[in-house]
Sequence to fold (131 residues):
Amino acid sequence: MNPKSAYETTFIVNAGLEDHSVDTVIDNVREFVQNHGGAISNLDKWGRKRLAYPIQKKNNGFYVYLRYDAPTNLQPLLDRFFQLEENIIRHLTVQLAPAAIDYRNNPGQADEVPAQAEEALAEGAEAESKD
Fold:
């Protein structure tokens, strides 16, 4: 059995569809993730928005955000699913690092910058000043 990792995916559905058709596409994605061993923790419908540039000759899209835990072998399958689904015009999947998950789960500690992050910023500033 493959270990599970945390992922987040944002995808854009063709905004020219009726609301019930958009919901059907979203349900198909949700079912696909769940049928392949994924556990969805968050699904947000951001709604219809104007695209920054035309994609497939479309100027508007319906944005959907999905956060889930899934086996690592799901990602190539999900990528292929998005490519074959004609009503999804763009998608992006990111694997979340454990530090990012902790940061999101503890928003009250957002003001405290970890020492490692400060060191990394300092090293980056030194490297830029040498160039």
In short: Helices lie at 19-35, 74-84, 98-105, 115-130. The radius of gyration is 18 Å.
